[in-house]
Structure formats: C-alpha cells, structure tokens
TrEMBL record:
Residues 194-207 have a biased composition (Acidic residues). GO terms for cellular component: cytosolic large ribosomal subunit. This is Large ribosomal subunit protein bL25. GO terms for biological process: translation. It comes from Pseudazoarcus pumilus. It comes from the Bacteria.
Amino acid sequence: MKIEFKATKRVDQGTGASRRLRRAGQLPGIIYGSHQDAVPITLDHNELIHMLKREAFHASVLTIDLEGKKETVVLRDAQWHPFKQIVLHLDFQRVSATEKLRLKVPLHFTNDDICPAVKLGGQMVTHVLNEIDVACLPKDLPEFIEVDLKDLQNDQSVHVSDIKLPAGVEIAQHGEGDPVIATALKTGGGSTAEDGDEAEGEDEGEA
C-alpha cells in the first residue's frame, strides 16, 4: 500500500510560529536523516490526523511530496496534545533503499478462538505484545506480521523466536532473552479444588 501526502517547507520556526500554524489548521513537522540536512515542514492537520489513525501509517514507508520533490520516509514520532485530539508535531526520518531500517511492526493474531487451549481447555489467550521491532530494507518492510495461534495448547506460550518472519525481515529486539508475545491461561482466578487440597496438605505437613 502506497501512502503519499503533501508538505511545504516551513520558514518561520519557534513556539510562536508553531502556535500560529496550528490555529490556521496546519501542522509543523520535520524531515531528517540519511546524511542530509533536517528540513522543517508544514502539513495539513486534518489530513494527517486521519492518516495517523490508520495502523499502516505507523509501519510503512511513506512518500512526502515536498513542493514537487518526493521524500521517502518513515514516521518516527508523533507529539499529541495532552487531552485534545490535536497533533502538535511530527518527526519523519528519510530512508535509503540500500540501508536497513528499524521500525516497530504490529502483530496480528489469528485463530485465538479455535486453538486447543480455548476450544478444549476453556482457557483464555492473552496478547502480551502487540508490536515488535524489526530490521529490514525498506522494500521488505511488512505492514504487519501474522501470528497464527491455531496450535496453542493449555498453559502454553508463544515467544518471539516462534514468529514466522517474511523474507528479508529479522527481529531487532532490545536486551536478551526470548520474550513471550502470547500465552494461554486459565480463566477466572480462583484455584481449583485440587489446588486447594494440595495447599491444605502442605499446611498440615508444616504443622
């Protein structure tokens, strides 16, 4: 899916200038990176706020038409007003077709409702992570990564290492270990009768 929008170069900068832009329905932003100078830009607020509500906008290579010149970028940061539905500033990073980029990609879970843990064990599937850091060339960037849970068993977890990645994509997680992304757990929260008998037996033994 190609996502493209227009922007103009921004001459006036500073808090006062940005405030005036927002009052006029415009949105300040910046394009940086790829060994080029940062360029302050102005965008249409209404157009961008609708785009920001689309999941793909956050995990896709975007095209900015900057006064007739096409810039290939990814969204790096969106600053929102603390309590109003107003975007204050957007940061875009240029990408190169020959350099790997790192970006968070959404996880789409499928078949939660038909896995053995739910259908046979009556358990509930919890999604621990909803996105993951990946590294890849821009052409290989997926809009999302699908995680099929059809084989999830009772009390079983799915880890980052279990994810089937598209060609050219690798995990770029921070830290060590193999984080859990989804897990099957008992519903409710109360202990079973069997658990209670075991606990009582332990108390008697201690006494």
